[in-house]
Write a structure and sequence with these properties.
Elements (H helix, E strand, L loop, with lengths): L15 E6 L8 H6 L3 E7 L3 H11 L3 E3 L2 H5 L6 E4 L6 H10 L3 E4 L7 H14 L3 E3 L7 H11 L6 E9 L19 H11 L3 E9 L16 E8 L5 E7 L8 E8 L2 E4 L8 E6 L11 E6 L10 H4 L5 E3 L8 E3 L7 H13 L8 H19 L5 E2 L4
Parallel strand pairs: 1-2, 1-4, 2-3, 4-5, 5-6, 7-10
Antiparallel strand pairs: 7-11, 8-9, 8-17, 9-10, 11-12, 12-13, 13-14, 15-16
Pfam family, one: GFO_IDH_MocA
InterPro entries: Gfo/Idh/MocA-like_OxRdtase_N, Gfo/Idh/MocA_oxidrdct_glycsds, NAD(P)-bd_dom_sf
Organism: Actinopolymorpha pittospori
Amino acid sequence: MNDGRVDGSGADGRPLDVAVVGLGFGADFVPLYADHPHVGRVGLVDSSPERLAAVGDRYGITDRYTRLDDVLADDRWDAVHILAPVAFHAEYSLAVLRAGKHCACAVPMATELDDLRAIVAAQRESGKNYMMMETSAYGREYLLAEEMYRAGELGALTLYRGYHIQNLDGYPDYWQGYPPMKYITHALSPLLALTGSTVADVTALGSARMSEERTAHFGNPFPTEVGLFRLRDSDVVADITMSFFQIARSYVEGFSVYGDQRSLEWSGVPDEPMRMFELLPLGPQGRGRSARETELEPPDFASRLPEALARYVRKYTLTPADGGPPVTKVAGHGGSHPYLVHEFVSSIVERRAPAIDAATSAAWTAPGICAHESALRDGERVPVPTF
C-alpha cells in the first residue's frame, strides 16, 4: 500500500485524499486508491460499524466514518467515490458536489431525468469533477473493440447488441421489482463510447409480467425489457435486452459489435475469448458471402496504468494489514476497476474533465429511463433529452 505522499499530485501541490462510500462492492476499490501514486489519504464511509471495522483493519485504513456528512464537512477530503445503493446515488452526488468535492459514482448516475439534470447543473456550478464509473467502457473486451475500431479494422459499424441478464432473487429489498432498463449503462455504453454519439430516441417493450409481490416498490410490471435505440450522429441501431427477474439464466453481461469488414461477439463470460468474424470475398457461385471465424484473447492493456495498479487487472493477492492470511481476489468487470480509478484521479490532477464527465454520464443513463417509459407506454417512441 502507498503510505506516503507524492508532491505535486493534486491541483494545489499535494496528493488527493479520497473517501470511499459504501463498503460492499466498494471494498474492492479501497486498495486501488491506496496504491495510486497520486492519492495520499484514503477514508472509509459505511453505515455498518462492523463492516467499517473489517475493511478498515484489512487495508490498514484509520479514517473511518459512519456518516457521509462528516466527510463533507471535513476540508481534508478532496474527492468522494460513491458505491452506496442506487437509491442514494443522486442524493449523495449532489451533496458531494455542493460541498465542493470531486465526485465519482457507481452506475447508474440516477434513476430519474430530473436528477440527471440536477447533477449536471451541480457539477457546472461547483467546478468540480463528476465521473460515473462505468465498467463496460474500460473492460478488456471493450478496450480491444475500441482499438480495432479506431484502427479501421471493423470498417463502418452496422449493428450493436448489448445485454444484461441477472436474476436478482435474494438481493436486498431495494432491488426487488427494479425496472431493468434503468440499469442500462453496462449494456449500452460501449456503443456510445465507440461512436461518441448519444441516443436520439428509443422504442421499448416489456416482456412477460412481474409477479405481484415484486411490483410494489417500483410499480414496474416487467421482469424483462427489450429496446431499440436510435443514435443522433450514427446510423447504427442498438438492440438492448435487460432482464432481472423470472428468467432461467445465469448472470451474463456483454455486447457484440458488427462492422462491414469485421465483427466481434463476446459471450459475456469473464475471461472467455471473443469471436471475430471477417467477411470473405464473394464465392464463385455468387450467392452470399461467408465469414472466417477466429477467437481473440483480449489483452490487459496494463501498460496504460501506473505500475502500482497494473496487477489489479487480473486475479491478484492481498496481504491484509491486520495480519490475516493472504487473500486472492478476482478482478471484476473485465479488469476495469483500476482504469476507472486512474481516470478519475488523473482528471483531477491534470485539471481536465474525466472521460465520462457529468454530461456524458447523463447521456449514457437517460436512454434507459426513457426506455422504461416507452415500455410502460406499450412501445411508444420516446425522445431522449440532451445534456
